[in-house]
Amino acid sequence: MERLITNYYEVAAIVLFGIGFAILLLHNNLIKKIIGMNIMDTAVFLFFIAKGYIQGAEAPIILDVNSKTTNFVNPIPTALMLTGIVVAVSITAFALSITIKVYEHYGTIELDQIMKMGG
């Protein structure tokens, strides 16, 4: 139980991922599926950023040449997640535009109704 409390960011990320995955699987509405995908994206971002954080470490920017600090936070997970956020926003915009086209063609965004129409 102590490890769950210590790693509460990771636990929250796993719970968020599970919620997003459940939304993605259980709902037939395309907008709800996109929201579930975004929740999963956010969970992955939270998890990687939490793994890259080191308690008591400083940002990897050296302001003073005489500084004796050797404990720095790893900047790579943060940089990768910034790129991931840009990709996630792009995929969300693309998915929403496809959803608009599906609605214009079928008149609904419910997948079960689209499948009944011969989708």
UniProtKB/TrEMBL annotation:
Transmembrane residue ranges = 6-26, 38-56, 76-96
Report the domain of life of the source organism.
Answer: Bacteria
Q: Where in the cell is it found?
A: Membrane
Topological type in the membrane = Multi-pass membrane protein
Q: What is its main location?
A: membrane
The coiled-coil segments of this chain are none
- What cellular-component terms does GO give this entry? membrane
* Pfam family name, one: Oxidored_q2
The cross-references to PANTHER family, in alphabetical order and at most eight, read: ANTIPORTER SUBUNIT MNHC2-RELATED, MULTISUBUNIT SODIUM_HYDROGEN ANTIPORTER, MNHC SUBUNIT
Name of the protein in question: Multisubunit sodium/proton antiporter, MrpC subunit
User: What organism is recorded for this protein?
Assistant: Clostridium grantii DSM 8605
